[in-house]
Amino acid sequence: MIILDEQSTKIAIIVGIVVSMFWYEKKNLSPGGVIVPGVTALFLLTDPLIVVITLMIAFITAFVVRNMSNYIILFGRRRFSMVILVSFGIIWTVDRLTYSIMPPTEIHVLGYIIPGLVANEMERQGSLKTLYSLFTITMLTLLLLLPVIGWSW
Length: 153
Prior knowledge:
This protein has one domain.
């Protein structure tokens, strides 16, 4: 297992932001927020299951908010706030349920905000475009990051 220090984490987030900015200028697509690719790249190195669970939470969040918008007027900041709140609620609920079933284990995600950021972009530009952007930018970030953190094949 790879252990990353604080400096590597900062570098990963900065590289992810730079790559995201260039990608957005070229393709006009967002990966779910500028910090998401850097954090995702780090967790692909250390614990890829967390990335999978995070994406599942993002899909569930997008689905719930899409259905909520049939009954509530959601747009702009109101929609963004609702996406973050729903994501937070889903993560908290899953956390509590899994902890009550199997106390020593917890299902981890990339924080409480990142699944909401990804879900927000899924709502805004579509799931496939968001996943395509997230995957591409995360891989580019990872390739640029590997020589910096000194990890080799």
